[in-house]
Structure formats: C-alpha cells, structure tokens
Amino acid sequence: GAAVESGGGLVQPGGSRRLSCAVPASIFRWYTMSWYRQAPESEREWVATLTTHGSTNYAESLKGRFTISRENDENSVYLQMNSLKPEDTAIYYCHAADIYSDGSRGMEYWGKGTLVTVSS
User: Fold this and answer.
1) Which of 64, 59, 60, 96 minimizes the C-alpha distance to 77?
2) Do residues 38 and 91 make contact, with C-beta atoms less than 8 angstroms apart?
3) Could you report the per-residue pLDDT of 3-40, keeping only the tens digit for each?
C-alpha cells in the first residue's frame, strides 16, 4: 500500500507510544497527512492533520496528548501519543490526501492500520 503504519501494540494506561507511517517520497512531499482511528464498535474518527506547509490540527479531545510530526529524510509521519487511556484503544490509520488550493481533493490513500491497545 501507499501508506504503511507501524508501532502499534499493548500499552499500559498512562504510557506513551509513537506510531509511524511510511509513504513514497512522491506522496510525502505533496500530500496532506492525517491520522484517524477506529475504536471497537465505533466509527472511524479524525485524530490529527499535518499539512505540506507544516500546519497541524488536532481533534479537540486529544490536544495536549497527541502530536503529529514528519521526518522528511525518512518520508514518514509520526503520531506521538502520551498519557494514554483505555479509551484510546483503537486501530490507528494513516491517511494521505492531495488537497488542491481550492480545497478540493485528488488522490487519497489509506494505510491498513495498526492496533493500539491501552490496558493494564
């Protein structure tokens, strides 16, 4: 796939985890990158976005605990998650979107997801 996540696993409440998403260089340079998550028996929800200009946006409920960032040399986007709670348990998905200047969208790519389980 165009986006490949890694870094999921079992984390104790209060712990931290960093997720990674590797994408081809052609996508990484021009696409807006986001993380979404889907908890059991819930709909997929948006977590955070990082634009090509470096602007970030977060779901209100996650501000202060989650941080999205990018590493240009590795064509990767990261999601640093701190102070994890059991309700953060979900499959986390990486998303890449080609967003035009008028706000319309071109190609989009989804990763297959990586499971994060927060439990003692």
Assistant:
1) 96
2) yes
3) 999 999 999 999 999 999 999 988 888 899 999 999 99
